[in-house]
Fold this sequence. Notes:
Layout: E1 2-7, H1 12-23, H2 30-47, E2 56-63, E3 67-73, H3 96-103, E4 106-112, E5 115-123
Antiparallel strand pairs: 1-2, 2-3, 3-5, 4-5
Helix pairs in contact: 1-2, 2-3
InterPro entries: Anti-sigma-factor_SerPK (IPR050267), HATPase_C_sf (IPR036890), HATPase_dom (IPR003594)
GO molecular function, one term: protein serine/threonine kinase activity
Keywords: Kinase, Serine/threonine-protein kinase, Transferase
Amino acid sequence: MWGLSCPGFPEEVSRARRWTRDILRGSPLAEDAELIVSELSANAILHTASGQQTGSFHLALAVSPQVVALSVTDEGGTGTAPKVEHQDDQAEHGRGLGMVSAIAHRVVVHSSHGGHTVTAELFTQAGPAGGHPC
Length: 134
């Protein structure tokens, strides 16, 4: 398991991507994980207190033979929790978590008084009940 804390600046999204790519180097899940971390980090900066002057966001990456789990925790500060929405073709916002849920096998949002944690899981092999191969 690895962890990284980043200041809430837009340029930190590329740092989060690079960090994820470095840890998962050689994994067939690396590109999907990098895209997910990029989206979740950008959401934390754009939509929560993490993107304010003294804000930050935190990443956790857990790797096992069965799953890669990526979590991004923000500092909250909004009246609503992140949620997966499937927008129509004309929508200009709200597609990010929908995209993450299309790539990941499972997405879980956990809210607490200190913020939100969005965890996306990529299974190394799709289970018999569905999922998509990576």
